[in-house]
Amino acid sequence: MEISSICICGGGSLGTVIAGVLSSKGIKVNLLTNHPASWSRRISVTDPCGKIYAGALGGVSAEASDLVPDADMVLLCLPGFLIKDELLRIKPFLKPGAFVGSVFSSTGFFFEALRIFGSDTPLWGFQRVPYIARVRDYGHSAALLGYKDSYNIAVENADAATAGQLRRFVEEYFERPTCLLGNYLEASITNSNPLLHTSRIYTIFKDWTPTATFPRCPYFYEEWTDEASDLLIRMDRELFDLIGVLPVNPGFIKPILEYYESSDACSLTSKIRSIESFKRILSPMTETDGGFTPDFTSRYFVEDFGYGLKYIYELAKKHSVVTSVIDTVYRWGRSVLESR
User: Which one of 179, 187, 294, 308 is least enclosed by Cβ atoms within 10 Å?
Assistant: First the structure.
């Protein structure tokens, strides 16, 4: 397996950062985006220490037929609600043996990809996003705000040797130790965004009514509350009840308290508030004449309820696992989305 050409789908924060990092290392990177005219062929990415990754894109287009046939790998850097349509868009143009992957697997990538491609196409995905990223100048530059210590990836529809080669590719080009998970469920089920974001969203907005406003927009993480931590811990416990009945290897994800090196709700709140790369991120709100109201178009609502927590909720129902706290949060989120 040789990967010398990658087509990235999506020009948001992660797509820009990954394009800059990989192109700076000699990989040919093409970008499939709906806004090709906004892109420079040269992009730069700056990390927290001031290191600059600068590279040149091979091609930029809105047409999959222009870029996908050349790709050894297609990597989706897209929100969950765009994944299904993007997979259908690229399918006719994939060359045999080309890998299709996702920068984040817990918003339905494997569930949709296995439905669309069956066993014919090798698939892979990160369990958690490899970077914390923000666009600086769209189509030109981005900030890499934080690295992960290591990566977990899942590979499907590939033999052990090919999966091992892909693991080594990720480890080399993303510059972090990389572990191969046992199967796609271990990448698709996570207690990161689908639980982390929804627990905070629920505690901020559960009592909101359409006539109410907030006097200010709080920071999402810096003003994290013990109430959100307590809810997150309880949702996490139910998630692990579900994991206990699934065909997965024990330990593929850490319980939320262990992951954040905390012992209870209070210490978890302190930990989340202290994470540097989380700072200055505002809650999903829209300013109005009378104050602030929820922004139901935000990915915190659309993606994390509709394409994250949804799959955990459905798996729990499929396997008859009681998840009363998750059910309450998910059904609330679904109800506010359906009412828009």
Answer: 179
